From TrEMBL:
PROSITE patterns: TRANSTHYRETIN_1. The keyword Transferase does not apply. This is 5-hydroxyisourate hydrolase. Homotetramer. Gene3D superfamilies: Transthyretin/hydroxyisourate hydrolase domain. Its EC number is 3.5.2.17. The keyword Hydrolase applies.
Amino acid sequence: MTSHLSTHVLDATAGGPAIGIDVVLERRQEAGWVQVASGTTDADGRIGDLGPGQLPPDTYRLTFAVASYFAARETASFYPEITVTFEVEGADHYHVPLLLSPYAYSTYRGT
């Protein structure tokens, strides 16, 4: 079974994949956020199967733990973690890429 969600982290300053970043997927509940899945970016900066085959429509967030990534490269950075909150509305695959640098980031809904 293929996951409903994937992500890809690219390091804009290094010009390549961001390897070894821990990522947590959570779903919003009345009592707070509940972890659904977690993973670590691979040699291509990807997590291809993050979570179950189907995510029910709801609000989710991905938290990328980037402090240790930059610390390992002896690079100062502004963000210890980056959280991207998004809504799942249907059965389509969701791909949430992150373009990363020490003092900025961007994201979008990919394909």
